Amino acid sequence: MSGACAAAAVLAGCGSKTPTCADAETVSLVKQIYQQQFDKQHKDMSEERQKRVQFTVKDTAVNLENITTDASNPDTGKAMCSAQLTTVLPEDAVKAEPQMEQYMRAIYERQGAVLEGTKLRGNVEYTAQRTEDTGVLQVALSGFMPFMGYFHDIAMDRYDRMLRAQAAAKKSVEAQMSAAPSASMAEMEAETEGAPSEPAPSAAPPQQPQATINEQIQAAQPVPGQTAAVPTLCSADETPVFACSTGKKRASLCMASSGSQLSYRLAPLDAAPEMVYPANAATASTAFKQGTHTGSTAQALPYVSFDKGNYRYVVYGRTTTEQGILVEQSGKRIADLHCQGERLSELGMSKMQSLSLNQDTRPLQLP
After folding, report:
1. In a shared domain, residues 27 and 160
2. What's the number of domains the chain is made of?
3. What's the domain range around 72?
4. Do residues 326 and 316 lie in contact, with contact meaning Cβ atoms separated by under 8 Å?
5. Could you report the per-residue pLDDT of 256-303, keeping only the tens digit for each?
6. What letter would DSSP give residue 173?
7. Which 3 state secondary structure label does DSSP give 142?
8. Which of 15, 92, 294, 326 is deepest in the core (most CB within 10 A)?
9. Neighbour count for residue 334 (Cβ, 10 Å)
10. What are the boundaries of the region Disordered (predicted)?
11. What letter does residue 110 receive in the DSSP assignment?
12. Backbone angles phi, psi at 125, to 5 degrees
């Protein structure tokens, strides 16, 4: 920062009262001069640097304390004063690493700026007097640069630490997400372990009365309006377009309120999501695909898919058809989890068309 250490400003206004160091008018002008000099020093910096400093400026206010009158000339009415500029910093602003903290103290403490806990103090000197002809109050301030420099360095260090913490958190999340598929796959495979990939033939069930069969069919049909009560992993401002439980897991496909993003989430029952895709916000058209599968039953099953490494995840079906979650690895089916109980699907509905998803032409490896 610039080495300029003195500045003066004039506050318009007439009066006959001899100014003192602690006058409200004098103190106000001292703080105005400091703010003007602070703005002047920082406006020449890059926009990025200004943004980093302003991140802490908005959380602080500068005051004038420990005001002392060093001398006063009764003939000219000039008061010579000393005081301390002070500001209270946020807790996280004073958590610099030991090496950085020692570096800043070594530079600024010998110049009269001291950090005590969260309070930064800096010694300054100023004079106050009225002009003989107009009675306008004049104040000249000096010695504020160590305080200003210390504040600047603390603010820069605070912002840098925040960026490093954000980068570390993002890296940790990405590491967890990259590990999630293998963990989820192990549990999915355990869920389907022992089940043949193709349905095994079974003995014909005993004949039931037609009335009983009709009752079972009616019980299996979803009740209109009941889908709103289906538990999902979507937030309050998202719209669920697919949701169901597979017995051990709960899966949801959620549409953002903007209507341009989708998010797939998988979680154990009554637990936080263990898998979220995509990890960062992305338009649905770049992260997902859609298609329609016609199986042996001749039913058209709409589906939405995404690829994560060599895994392909697919949610398929409507509430009125079979519905489930398919997982493939390198083109081979490793899990096909059927939805149980309460379920919801609006795949293939008009609201999905607004996402303009690309077509997934690969067939589904369904039994």
Report:
1. yes
2. 2
3. 6-166
4. yes
5. 888 788 999 998 887 888 889 998 877 788 899 999 888 766 678 889
6. H
7. strand
8. 326
9. 17
10. 178-210
11. G
12. -130, 150
